[in-house]
Design goal:
The protein has 169 residues and is mostly helical. The chain is built from 5 helices and 2 strands; from the N terminus they run ααββααα.
Length: 169
């Protein structure tokens, strides 16, 4: 795993469990990244020259270009194939599972925290359509209620004759 990816994951984990302001997120990632680089350099310095892999230590200056997910306008978090989590930036097809497993949060709390309308779907539209088609194919979808033109009257029950008991002779 590249160092920057590890730094971002560590920062995301920390941020999801704390109340760090969004403006301090890039600085937190820089600090974590610096610590990881120092750890890697110290381990490379102590390792034999034959086992060093310097291609892993090349770092891209991506810290400044990291987009903080919570600054995204709510309408941009939904694409046709995914919904982007405003907490960690992960893209998911269905947010309910991700929120409950990763952030221990319900959809209602998530919507309240980020002030999201009920109009904003938390399921990717293509995924929702695919599931709808599968339900229709296997006839699991609810049928639209048909308009009732005439009231349905149950037929009158027909009286069945009672059986006679045999007399003991």
């Amino acid at each position: 795993m590249p160092i920057l990816t590890a730094a971002v994951r560590i920062a995301a984990s920390f941020i999801s469990r704390s109340s760090l302001p969004v403006s301090e997120t890039p600085e937190l990632i820089r600090q974590i990244h610096g610590v990881l680089v120092d750890l890697m350099e110290s381990s490379l310095a102590s390792a034999p020259a034959a086992t060093r892999n310097l291609s892993e230590t090349r770092l891209e200056p991506m810290v400044e270009s990291i987009a903080v997910p919570s600054k995204a306008p709510p309408r941009q978090i939904v694409t046709q194939d995914a919904v982007i989590c405003l907490i960690c930036g992960q893209s998911c097809k269905v947010m309910r599972g991700h929120l409950s497993k990763t952030h221990e949060m319900t959809l209602a709390v998530y919507r309240r925290q980020f002030n999201l309308d009920r109009e904003i779907p938390l399921v990717a539209p293509n995924y929702s359509e695919k599931r709808r088609q599968l339900a229709a194919q296997f006839r699991l979808a609810r049928a639209a209620p048909s308009p009732v033109t005439e009231p349905v009257v149950a037929p009158e029950p027909v009286a069945t004759p009672k059986r006679r008991r045999r007399s003991a002779t």
